[in-house]
Amino acid sequence: MLKGVNWIAVIVAVVLLEGLGMLWYGPLFGQAWVAALGHTPDMANQNVMMALGAVNTLIVVLGLAWLLRRAGATSVNAAIMASLAAWFFFSFTTQALEYLYMGMSLPFVAINMGYLLVSFVVAGATLALVKIGAPAGRAATA
Fold this sequence. Notes:
By secondary structure, this protein is mostly helical. The protein contains 5 helices and no strands.
């Protein structure tokens, strides 16, 4: 399943998404997110949470790379469109239902959904753009 994966593109995408997450939940929306959450998250296990978050990001990017390759989405536009579809049909719908049952506030949901939306777009574009390390015959896609 991972044969032909452009690991350099995957790693670049993971690093970009981890950086985006730090900005998103830090200076950009951190205070609003904590306010919407209703309490300050327990940061006692911050290193473990960050490591698990990075592993989760790697799994998502690998899944997206596989999907883009299977869909033949080799251009940036096609990769972004496929990434938006993946976000909507899988991430948005799953999380929307979860947040609905959890009774989360609209600002909390909007911040989290916004991050995931931007993440899918950034990952898809990155996977299409990074050509270094791409296996022969596998143009642009990871």
